[in-house]
Amino acid sequence: MSNTEPVHKTLYPFVAIVGQEALKKSLILNVINPGLSGVLIRGEKGTAKSTAVRALAELLPEIDVVDGDPFQSDPHDPRAMAPEVYARYQAGETLPVRRRKVRVVELPVSATEDRVIGTINLETALKEGRRTIEPGLLAAAHRGILYMDEVNLLDDHVVDVLLDSAAMGVNTIEREGVSLSHPARFTLIGTMNPEEGELRPQLLDRFGLCVHVEGLNDPAQRVEVVKRRAAFEDDPEAFAARWADETEKMRTAIAAAIARYPRVQADDAILYAIAERSLKLGVDGHRSDIIMLKAAKALAAWEGREQVTEQDVDGAAALALAHRIRRKPFEDISGSSFS
């Protein structure tokens, strides 16, 4: 895998997206706490799903990586180092450091398991007695964003592997009796058009949050969408420059929320409020309660607070429960109610 950075392409600014507040908030919350296990964005074509995901990386703080390492190892955190880098660290080597933007790694619909998780270089193992990993997309996505467009069209087994890695933060490759692992902590984002088929309930549940997006119904907003898109296509650099101040403000706010999140507290009254919402809606298991707590804390951090409120729980429930409610046959997720 090449370590050359891709040529930078001017992206449509995240802050210039009209409406779609739930979509934008769900993405920001997953950046504040990647432990939310990602977000599934459901909606018709032309509703800014892909635009928002690709623009998200521009808002994130830059990260330090070990220069020349295809696994995006963190030179300051042994837990986020690939095995070979960790061995160098243990040996006392001074690791070369490079600072760069967070990546959005896109997963092709045709991706195979080997392309996703990587393979073990058996030739090196046989010739040199040294086990090495040929990195896959999960290595490239470590400490970044893994974007799965049309996730409902992916092979179920590939999706299972991705969701397992997202939950554990580790990718394990097993071939011919040889097993190797490397850190794989990333923000998982999936988009889909429900008209092209649904996900299995077991897979739906593995996404921390779910949001349904639709075309805007307000004529003024629709006109604004057209104006902004036309201006961007005429001159992407000039359009991005006009939104540079707002982009920087949001980038600063996100960095502050990430730093604040570990200090956010939720008392027992909040935990009971979370449990009651899951019970009222007949949600199976306890994953929803855990995700709601994380989302509520991320909301509080985003709002500049260190204490979770009932309003945070309401906001978290709207994003964490819709895809987990028991539904009748043919009942759509977007019809779920939280009142």
UniProtKB/TrEMBL annotation:
InterPro entries, alphabetized: AAA+_ATPase (IPR003593), CHLI-like (IPR045006), ChlI/MoxR_AAA_lid (IPR041628), Mg_chelatse_chII-like_cat_dom (IPR000523), P-loop_NTPase (IPR027417)
Database matches in Gene3D superfamilies: Magnesium chelatase subunit I, C-Terminal domain (1.10.8.80), P-loop containing nucleotide triphosphate hydrolases (3.40.50.300)
Record keyword Thylakoid present: no
Domain of life: Bacteria
Pathway: Porphyrin-containing compound metabolism; bacteriochlorophyll biosynthesis
Stored SMART domains: AAA
Transmembrane regions: none
Domain AAA+ ATPase: 35-217
Keywords: ATP-binding, Nucleotide-binding
Single Gene Ontology MF annotation: ATP binding
Any Pfam family the entry gives: Mg_chelatase
Keyword Transcription (UniProt): no
Its job: Involved in bacteriochlorophyll biosynthesis; introduces a magnesium ion into protoporphyrin IX to yield Mg-protoporphyrin IX.
Record-stated family: Belongs to the Mg-chelatase subunits D/I family.
Protein name: Mg-protoporphyrin IX chelatase
